[in-house]
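In the current project phase, the collection of sequences with tokenised folds has grown. One resulting record follows, to show the layout:
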Amino acid sequence: MARKHRIPRNTLNDHSHEWAQKRREYLTQQTGADLLHTGHYSIDPSVLPGNIENFIGVVQMPVGIAGPMLVHGEHAQGYFHVPLATTEGTLVASYSRGMRLLNECGGVHTTVVEQFMQRSPAFIFSNAREARDFGQWIDEHFLEIKQQAETTTRIGKLEHIMQWSVSKTRYLRFNYTTGDAAGQNMVGKATLVACEWIVKEYPGECEYLLSGNMDTDKKHSHLNMLHSRGKRVIAEVVLKKDIVQKIMKVDTKMLARATVLANTGAMMAGAAYNGPHSANGIASLFIATGQDEANVVESHAGLLSHELLDNGDFYLSVTLPSLIVATYGGGTGLPTQKECLEILDCYGTGKANKLAEIVAATVLAGDISLACAVIGGHWVSSHDKFGRNRD
């Protein structure tokens, strides 16, 4: 590659104002793009190693506050102001409207049911029988495998190993708890050490690939709907008939009928989520709080459940079986993301379950608001009024 087309880098101190400026100047020369706004930021580049390479500046995303929202969780308790980073008009207003309804109905109850993070190596043998026998050996030596894996981490714990045979391959799925970290890199390192020990100690011949793709990293899968990846968290509420009518101008019987239709449509489409739009709230919260944005793919999948009660009230819940959030590590410590986590009192250790409960409650608020907007006939009019870019 010609030197004039080589991105400027400094192998000794690349995360600095000086080298960010050099790269912006290089890009202006190469493309003609004016990077005036990208180059204005308040953070110190020295905090960015481990988060970004070839740093040039910051893309500024508007952040709005929805709420407050009343949550009755095991970890999140009280009223929360929820930061949402988005460029979609009406989104913050819609979530705030849903939160108001939930508050007037007594608040949202949230529960973290279980939590795991996976790495899924594939072990290859000469034939299916050898692969089957290897699986039995793994079961018999689980405690030794666990001990080896946990030498690489202070907080990661190997809880169990799932197994499947396909042809002459044995797929393993190592399931860990990872504390307040999302843990993908943590479990990758731990599983590598465990696999090396397995190859050394197993009496037969085998080879392996560290990821056989059954961990479904950054991909939606039905496996995660049944066997949780990240946190399985549930948010639920009983919506009072009269309050729904007053705030949303919607009858709960009509809401129940529309939800059945929506469930059928989602089933026909093969959608990963049968509710209105879980990804909107999750993505906006993820960006604001420094989560790995690619994890929205896994985290948005779930099940919206409902029941029209005898008195006309409406039970509604959202189950997110693979919500991947962290309050420590990754992008959570960057200055603006840390501030958004501090708004929620969710920065640092011991806060990941609390954040998960807030995310699930936020999804529920957004779903009920959009569903009622569609039924009530003010979905399009709201976007016309608030969602236009008027530049």
The domain at 63-114+230-386 is CATH 3.90.770.10 (3-hydroxy-3-methylglutaryl-coenzyme A Reductase; Chain A, domain 2). The chain has a mean pLDDT of 93. The chain has three domains: 14-60, 63-114+230-386, 121-209. The first helix runs from residue 17 to 31.
